[in-house]
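Late entry, evening session. Most of the bench is empty. Finally got around to the prediction I had been postponing all week. Sequence below, unchanged from the version circulated by S.P.
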Amino acid sequence: GNQVKILQVIKDLASNGMTVIMATHFPDHAFLVAGVVAILNNGQISQIGSPDVVITEESMKLTYGVDTRIICVGDGAERKVCLPSLL
């Protein structure tokens, strides 16, 4: 519950014109609240852009070394989620 509360505060601040810089290892957070994301890999920004363009199955594999699936869920209000594949 607290994750959702904090993400809502971040979304509200951004909606009111405030710039918010947030670091996370959870791609779903970026899908929920980010307008622009950057992937940091080995101390370098490897990609920057919208979450839909930057957070892909390929970029997650290159960054984290884990196979993932990016899927859309929801009833009409579609949203993307990033699911790690089990070994």
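Two things to note before I forget:
The chain has a mean pLDDT of 92.
The first helix runs from residue 2 to 15.
Will write this up properly tomorrow.
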